[in-house]
Amino acid sequence: MTTVSGRFLSSLVGMSERDVEKNVPASQFVDTLRRLADSIEAGESFRIQVANARFTIPANAELVIEHEVEDGAEELSLELQWSADD
């Protein structure tokens, strides 16, 4: 996806580390981005389920845009990062 990122999932309470990436249809990706953008804009938390794990991203999550280039492949990640204490 971008990865709205599988990497941040490892910070969840009671969950062992995990790194999940899931390909989704464009319509689902756009819907998720819209709901996420609306939540961020309103200063609200965001509830989502990824690969059978349901969790809430707190309103104060850090927002990160990352671009990587490695071995001729490029990746753009939109990441939300927070600690389990948030």
Highlighted features:
alpha+beta, two-stranded antiparallel sheet, 20% helix, 33% strand, disordered N terminus
| Total helical elements | 1
SSE succession: HEEEE
Average pLDDT rating: 85
Q: What composes the largest sheet?
A: 2 strands, antiparallel
Overall body shape: globular
Whole-number radius of gyration?
13 Å
Strand order across the largest sheet: 1-2
Termini gap: 25 Å
Strand content: 25-35%
List unreliable stretches of 5+ residues: 1-13
Number of domains: 1
The helical percent reads 10-25%
Number of strands: 4
Query: What class do helices, strands and sheet pairing give?
Result: alpha+beta
Notes on the structure:
The protein has 86 residues and is an alpha+beta fold. It has one domain. The protein contains one helix and four strands; from the N terminus they run αββββ. Strands 1-2 form a two-stranded antiparallel sheet. Strand 3 and strand 4 form a beta hairpin. It is globular. The N terminus is likely disordered.
